[in-house]
Each structure stands twice: as structure tokens, then as C-alpha cells.
């Protein structure tokens, strides 16, 4: 990357940091968004359980953050919010039950990466991820050590693809232990990833950049994201990992051109849910958020569960909503 591109990138980070900090400061008090409305939303397949765990990667350090008086650490520590299919009556709007007994069966793993200054347990995220869990997925949302919460910097994003790979390693390993909550409930052969904003850039890097590509990933979802550069890697030789991009055309933090260009570059199969009136955050709320849920779960149903039925009907549901456009490129 040339010096000019470095300066442009640095300036973009400063602008995005201010905007994301503003969004995070106000949105953090917002209640978790709901589905479009109770009459039109389908009952989910499962009730939802919730647990918070801590994972520690002793193989990599965490740099100091002088602005927030955080010292250097010899490891990388993550609080991970787990949402999973649980025993109990399925509902249209499930409320996660702490430490609920998991439902019978094995379920694919989806790891979700949060946006700048936010966290894996941010309310609007939990609203979306709860729905995904109720549709039959174990969803893990780590909180990254240096890009989360108020005042966070952005530079540590370069370490986050490895963080996500570590979370996948740990959850799969733990599920092999008889005393683990998810023992015999985690499908180790089907793994998806998703992310919003800086978390979307993390997801894109993890899936498509040669620096940190994790070949276990079967499908990826990026919401309001774009390519970010990563050390010792590039975006040439893209694998044909299925990609769903979701973006609002009025996003002033990460412009929609980020997803436009990504979809143009990526190898099929690709899918693109584009909201003409959506911005950086409201695509996760209320009616748009319900459509996001439909698209994400239909996409994962096909590529993690080999069930095309929901994705086949998605274009009609998007068109009828009047909220978005949906484009699919499968060849």
C-alpha cells in the first residue's frame, strides 16, 4: 500500500471512529429490535438459551491502550455471548433463557463479530442473533479486547480474524468434552461467520484475505462492511466461499460502495440484500432487521444445513416488503 493510500485509510478510520462512537453511545441504550410484527413473523423452530463464557488465547498478546489506561497483556481475552437452540416451546419473539438445556440435535456454529466501540452483547445485535439461534444455529458473539466499548481504537482489527479462528477452535474443542454445555450439540463440520461494520471487515478478511483465511468457513455474511487491508495478505485468489452482503445505501459511515465492489469482485455464489433507505445501524432494527433475519437464516440454511427452501422464496419476500432489493449470482 502506498503512503498516499495509508494516509487516506488513516483519515477514513478517524472519521469512522467518530461516527461509530456516536452511534454506539446512543444506540447502546436502545432496546433489542423486534421482528416486523407478530402477525407476519413465523414461529421459530426452537426456544433460545444463553450463556456468557470467557476464552483466553495464551499464544498471542494484547497491546496496551494508553488512551483507556489498559496495560499490555500477555494473552488475548474474550467474553463470548453464546445463544443456542434450547428446550422449550418455540416462539415468534423468543427471550433467551440463561443456561437453558440445549435442544436435541447438532447445530451449525456461527461466529458474529461486532462493530467498532460496540460489543458482542450489544442489545440490537442480541435481537438479531437470538432469532438466528431460534432458527437452529449456535451463535457465538465475542467481544474483542481493544476495538470494543467507548473510546476504543481501531488498529487492532488486524488481529481479529485470528481471534475468530481461535473462538472457533475453542468452541469446537470444548464441545468434545462430556461436561460442556454444547457437548453433542455442535456440528463441527458446518461453520459460518458474520459481522457488522468493523466486524464485517473482520469477517471479510477471515474469509477472503490470504493473510488469515480460515478454510473451515462454509459461508460468510457481511453487514455494512468493506475490505480493509491486512498485513502479509491480499484479496487475490478469492475462494468461492458463499457470501451474503447486506448494506444500506444511505450509510455515511461505511459507504454502500464497499459492499457493491465486494459483490462485483467475489466469486459466486454471492447474494446481496441492499436497503435504499438504510443507514449504518437501522438495517438491524425493526422491519429491516426482520428482513435481515430472513436473509441470513435462509442463506445459512442452504450453505450450512443444505436446505434451499427458505432461500428459494426469499426474492419474493424481499420484493413484497418494499424495503430492499435482492440479487443472487450463483454461476
Summarize the structure.
The protein has 331 residues and is of the alpha/beta class.
Sequence-ordered SSE layout with sheet pairings:
Layout: H1 3-27, E1 47-57, E2 76-86, E3 97-98, E4 107-113, H2 123-134, E5 138-143, H3 160-175, E6 186-196, H4 198-208, E7 217-223, E8 243-248, H5 257-265, E9 270-275, H6 286-305, H7 309-321, E10 325-329
Parallel strand pairs: 1-3, 4-5, 4-6, 6-7, 7-8, 8-9
Antiparallel strand pairs: 1-2, 2-5, 9-10
Question: What features would you describe in this structure?
Answer:
This protein has one domain: Alpha/Beta hydrolase fold, catalytic domain (Rossmann fold). It contains seven helices and ten strands. It has helices at 3-27, 123-134, 160-175, 198-208, 257-265, 286-305, 309-321, and strands spanning 47-57, 76-86, 97-98, 107-113, 138-143, 186-196, 217-223, 243-248, 270-275, 325-329. The protein has a ten-stranded mixed sheet, with helices on both faces. Helix 2 crosses helix 6, helix 3 packs across helix 4 and helix 6 runs antiparallel to helix 7. The chain starts with a helix and ends with a strand. Residues 1-40 have low confidence and may be disordered.
Tell me the CATH superfamily: Alpha/Beta hydrolase fold, catalytic domain
- What is the CATH top level name? Alpha Beta
Question: Spatial order of the strands in the main sheet?
Answer: 3-1-2-5-4-6-7-8-9-10
The proportion of strand residues reads 15-25%
Termini separation = 32 Å
**Helix content range:** 25-40%
What is the count of structural domains? 1
CATH architecture: 3-Layer(aba) Sandwich
Apparent shape: globular
- CATH topology name, in short, is Rossmann fold
Tell me, rounded to a whole number, the average pLDDT. 89
Radius of gyration (Å):
19 Å
**How would you sum up the major sheet?**
10 strands, mixed
User: In terms of structural class, how would the helical and strand content be classed?
Assistant: alpha/beta
Order of helices and strands: HEEEEHEHEHEEHEHHE
Could you list the spans in which at least 5 consecutive residues all have pLDDT below 50? Answer: 1-40
What is the total tally of β strands?
10
Q: Counting H and I runs of at least 4 residues, what is the number of helices?
A: 7
Amino acid at each position: 500500500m502506498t503512503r498516499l493510500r495509508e494516509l487516506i485509510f488513516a483519515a477514513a478510520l478517524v472519521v469512522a471512529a467518530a461516527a461509530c462512537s456516536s452511534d454506539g453511545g446512543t444506540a447502546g441504550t436502545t432496546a433489542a429490535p423486534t421482528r416486523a410484527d407478530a402477525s407476519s413473523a413465523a414461529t421459530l423452530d426452537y426456544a433460545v438459551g444463553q450463556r456468557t463464557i470467557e476464552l483466553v488465547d495464551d499464544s498471542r498478546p494484547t497491546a496496551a491502550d494508553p488512551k483507556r489506561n489498559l496495560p499490555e497483556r500477555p494473552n488475548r481475552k474474550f467474553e463470548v455471548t453464546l445463544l443456542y437452540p434450547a428446550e422449550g416451546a418455540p416462539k415468534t419473539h423468543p427471550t433467551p433463557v440463561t443456561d437453558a438445556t440445549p435442544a436435541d440435535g447438532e447445530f451449525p456454529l456461527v461466529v458474529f463479530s461486532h462493530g467498532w466501540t460496540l460489543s458482542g452483547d450489544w442489545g440490537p445485535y442480541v435481537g438479531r442473533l437470538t432469532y438466528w439461534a431460534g432458527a437452529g444455529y449456535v451463535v457465538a458473539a465475542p467481544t474483542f479486547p481493544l476495538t470494543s466499548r467507548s473510546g476504543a481504537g481501531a488498529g487492532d482489527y488486524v488481529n481479529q480474524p485470528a481471534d475468530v479462528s481461535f473462538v472457533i477452535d475453542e468452541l469446537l474443542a470444548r464441545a468434545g468434552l462430556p461436561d460442556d454445555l454444547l457437548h453433542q450439540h455442535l456440528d463441527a463440520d458446518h461453520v459460518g461467520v458474520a459481522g457488522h461494520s468493523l466486524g464485517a471487515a473482520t469477517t471479510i478478511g477471515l474469509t477472503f484475505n490470504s493473510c488469515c483465511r480460515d478454510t473451515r468457513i462454509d459461508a460468510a455474511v457481511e453487514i455494512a462492511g468493506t475490505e480493509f487491508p491486512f498485513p502479509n495478505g491480499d484479496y487475490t485468489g478469492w475462494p468461492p466461499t458463499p457470501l451474503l452482503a447486506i448494506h444500506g445505501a444511505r450509510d455515511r459511515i461505511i459507504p454502500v460502495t464497499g459492499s457493491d465492489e465486494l459483490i462485483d469482485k467475489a466469486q459466486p455464489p454471492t447474494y446481496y440484500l441492499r436497503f435504499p433507505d438504510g443507514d449504518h445501524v437501522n438495517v438491524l432494527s425493526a422491519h429491516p432487521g426482520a428482513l435481515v433475519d430472513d436473509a441470513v437464516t435462509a442463506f445459512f440454511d442452504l450453505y450450512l444445513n443444505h436446505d434451499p427452501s427458505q432461500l428459494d422464496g426469499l426474492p419474493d419476500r424481499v420484493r413484497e416488503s418494499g424495503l430492499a432489493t435482492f440479487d443472487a449470482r450463483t454461476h
